[in-house]
Amino acid sequence: DIQMTQSPSSLSASLGDRVTITCRASQSISTYLSWYQQKPGKAPKLLIYTASTLQSGVPSRFSGSGSGTDFTLTIGSLQPEDFATYFCQQSYSAPLTFGGGTKVDMK
Amino acid sequence: QVQLQESGPGLVKPSETLSLTCTVSGGSTSNYYWSWIRQPPGKGLEWVGHILYSGGTNYNPSLKSRVTISLATSKNQFSLKLTSVTAADTAVYYCARLGIGDRGGWGAFDIWGQETMVTVSS
């Protein structure tokens, strides 16, 4: 199985901050990497797919980069609605696996 | 737009079978994979398995001996059966649409159903 390791597991940030979350795969997954946002009591929402493609309707302050084993999700300027938990997920091989999540809360 | 809606019992007894159905509205089941994902309380996300619109399936090896995912195209529904459940199967279960990626591989989970909490308890 491909292990997906996110860091940090949690972070505190202020409105307007630039936030970066890292996801590392245990082996190369090319760009078969997606990012999701989850708020309490809600289903995850797709933000980014193929490592850097913004899903339709997602604000442009979200961006993704990386390939191979190392990936980054960046929130350019943190907004109130961005406080949530973020997950990465690989679709390179089965079983499809998710990172452990990064919780972004208010400083 | 396409929406997914799970249905099924919220309480299942140990050793029995968990059965959930996901109804697809606003579109057909063609040209996508249809998936089940679960999230134990306070934990991360675990892919359970998926079925292609043409009927092929992939299951998580950790659950493979107990899982069956089926598709009822005429009803625009797909279903999950998980046998011999234990407390470890207590989780929020999501159905989700998985896109077909480049070169026929898997894409991303772009549409999710609302959460369905399933508790395994006597």
Determine Rg of chain A (CA atoms, Å): 13 Å
**How large is the share of residues in beta strands of chain A?**
over 45%
Largest interface: A-B, 25 and 24 residues
**pLDDT under 50 segments of chain A (min length 5)?**
none
Q: In terms of structural class, how would the helical and strand content of chain B be classed?
A: mainly beta
- Helix-strand pattern of chain B, N to C? EEEEEEEEEEE
Principal-axes geometry of chain A comes out as globular
Characteristic terms for this protein:
heterodimer, A: 107 residues, mainly beta, 7-stranded mixed beta sheet, 4-stranded antiparallel beta sheet, 0% helix, globular, B: 122 residues
Could you characterize what this model shows?
The complex is a heterodimer of chains A (about 110) and B (about 120). The mean pLDDT of chain A is about 95. In chain A, strands 2, 4, 5, 6, 9, 10 and 11 form a seven-stranded mixed β-sheet that branches. Chain A has a four-stranded antiparallel β-sheet with strand order 1-3-8-7, with no helix packed on it. Chain A is an all-beta fold and about 110 residues long. Chain A has strands at about 5, 10-15, 20-25, 35-40, 45-50, 55, 60-65, 70-75, 85-90, 95-100, 100-105. Chain A contains no helices and eleven strands. Chain B has about 120 residues and is mainly beta. Chain B has no helices and eleven strands. In chain B, strands 2, 4, 5, 6, 9, 10 and 11 form a seven-stranded mixed β-sheet that branches. A four-stranded antiparallel β-sheet of chain B has the order 1-3-8-7, with no helix packed on it. In chain B, a hairpin with a 5-residue loop joins strand 9 and strand 10 (about 105-110). Chain B starts with a strand and ends with a strand. The model of chain B has no long low-confidence stretch (mean pLDDT about 95). The chains are: A mainly beta (about 110), B mainly beta (about 120). The interface of A and B includes residues 34, 36, 41, 44 and 95 of A.
